[in-house]
Amino acid sequence: MSALSYLCEYESNSDDSDSDLNSPKRLKRSKLPVPNLSKVAVVPSDSHEDNAVLHEGRKRSFPHVRGNWATFVYVNYHVDTLFDLIAKLQEVVAANIGQCHHCEDFHISLSRTFVLKYHLISPFSTSLQKTVSGIDSFHLGFAAVKIYCNEENSRTFISLDVDPLTQRHLLNLTKKVDGVLNEFQLPTFYETPSFHMSVLWVNGNKKLELESILEELNELFYENIEKSPKTFLVDTVNCKSGNKYFQYSLS
């Protein structure tokens, strides 16, 4: 129907009195038809659903919130000299505990996981780069296998603890990182951190079960280290914020 068809029309009536001829006629208004929206595409509101089944049983430490970027600072370990050892550790864990998974990446945390708003990512990264640029590079080494469980008791990790000399270097590094975190009013690292690199994990809190085979795991570790001592030059610090990666060079 044309839009012109909805214009108001005046009625004509020959029986009207003379007085009615001088006043406007009553309007007849047509109703607009109800629009048909059945074929109009509807854009869904933004939503995010975590499905632990898609991530081998892993769950988020805190819920996903749009605009909040999960962030942490760490040292990246990117050599493959430990693969034989990790494969042997996995065999023992699987035989005693059950299904065991490789960690997706090897790293040593220098901060807790914290939340940054998007507009703070760039200034935080700039401040962190300035802070760590004056720190000397150092060699990282491991001392033993140790078992850790996350704060949510959702995963238990088979990890390699660093040696005492590496511990001192990392303590100095985390103090510098803590300074940047304080600057942005973010939570600092643990008061007495235990620096380690997680290499394997299992679902749930299996700390007691894994500690019952810890001696066997450490025997494998010492045998492997004696055959081929493993150190790694730490000359960069990394930061991951959501899907953004940053790397800063040490002196």
Automatic annotation (TrEMBL):
<feature type="active site" description="Proton donor/acceptor">
    <location>
        <position position="107"/>
    </location>
</feature>
<protein>
    <recommendedName>
        <fullName>U6 snRNA phosphodiesterase</fullName>
        <ecNumber>3.1.4.-</ecNumber>
    </recommendedName>
</protein>
<feature type="active site" description="Proton donor/acceptor">
    <location>
        <position position="196"/>
    </location>
</feature>
<dbReference type="GO" id="GO:0034477">
    <property type="term" value="P:U6 snRNA 3'-end processing"/>
</dbReference>
<dbReference type="GO" id="GO:1990838">
    <property type="term" value="F:poly(U)-specific exoribonuclease activity, producing 3' uridine cyclic phosphate ends"/>
</dbReference>
<keyword id="KW-0378">Hydrolase</keyword>
<dbReference type="Pfam" id="PF09749">
    <property type="entry name" value="HVSL"/>
</dbReference>
<comment type="function">
    <text>Phosphodiesterase responsible for the U6 snRNA 3' end processing. Acts as an exoribonuclease (RNase) responsible for trimming the poly(U) tract of the last nucleotides in the pre-U6 snRNA molecule, leading to the formation of mature U6 snRNA.</text>
</comment>
<dbReference type="GO" id="GO:0016829">
    <property type="term" value="F:lyase activity"/>
</dbReference>
<comment type="similarity">
    <text>Belongs to the 2H phosphoesterase superfamily. USB1 family.</text>
</comment>
<keyword id="KW-0456">Lyase</keyword>
<dbReference type="InterPro" id="IPR027521">
    <property type="entry name" value="Usb1"/>
</dbReference>
<keyword id="KW-0540">Nuclease</keyword>
<dbReference type="GO" id="GO:0005634">
    <property type="term" value="C:nucleus"/>
</dbReference>
<keyword id="KW-0539">Nucleus</keyword>
